[in-house]
Amino acid sequence: MSQEVLSQSEIDALLSAISTGEMSADELKKEEQEKKVKVYDFKRALRFSKDQIRSLTRVHENFARLMTTFFSAQLRTYVQISVASADQIPYEEFIRSIPNMTILNVFEVPPLDGRILMEVNPNIGYAMLDRVLGGKGESVNKIDNLTEIETKIMRNLFERTFEYLQEAWSTITEINPVLTDLEVNPQFLQMVSPNETVVVISLNTTIGDTSGMINICIPHVVLEPIIPKLSVHYWMQTNNKERLPEEAAILEKRIKKAYVPIVAELGNAQITVEDFLSIGIGDVLELQQHIEAPLLVKVGQIPKFMAQPGQSSKKLAVQILEILKEGENDDE
Fold it and tell me: Any signal peptide, and if so, which residues (predicted)?
């Protein structure tokens, strides 16, 4: 709770008023007991606590890291995406804050109600298109309706990021994002009422030498069913949850059914690069392994056993002779 700090002159004037009888101590107490009125703007309703906003920020910080890796691989250029801010504002204010012509990805997130909007600044969008089409990743000044080919490319790019959005949101709830529309004019897009509170996650985005913003607009109606899960208490309870014996048994059963590669090495050799370049058909490489020496058996690249070669049912086989102790204690 904020308190007003008085200056020394104000303190002196207050003491003087009390001593001269102009103001009584009872009047001061009465003023303190009166209920103070706090101004509330119904057009800018704050429906989320700072704690809940921080939880959404953490989720989208993870999403930003995953998108950075994805777009770096897809565009094959320098990409950096990070969360710049997270605010709750009226939907009308968000629409006024973005360019008149921009790239708007609208998608549903079942089983949650409502739709989420991902606004991509045209500088970023055209830089991505230029890079995908074989360019240097330079942006263009034109802001116009996308052609059918450009629309298809943009849809494919951002639809493939939905699996990373799903992974980032998995700490809160399971969602299945589905792209429903791609618009360029925000005036034609009316997802919720103008005064509806939305959370806007702004992402600083750099593609090569081009920089801009990606804004994710999440209406209150989408987050309403999962608001309790956005609290710190829920995150702490989730992190400290003990695994049930039934879950441990199922996990152990699945691990036992997992396949691991096993390799029996007949031997190895070292040669110079010059000899390697001159190797031809019919040449023989001498292995640094005696013919009667046991073979090293690796499980997932980790030495685990010593064995001798042989045959079983007309197939090559090895018979385990020794279990390597260092292999058992290896944590990899």
Answer: none
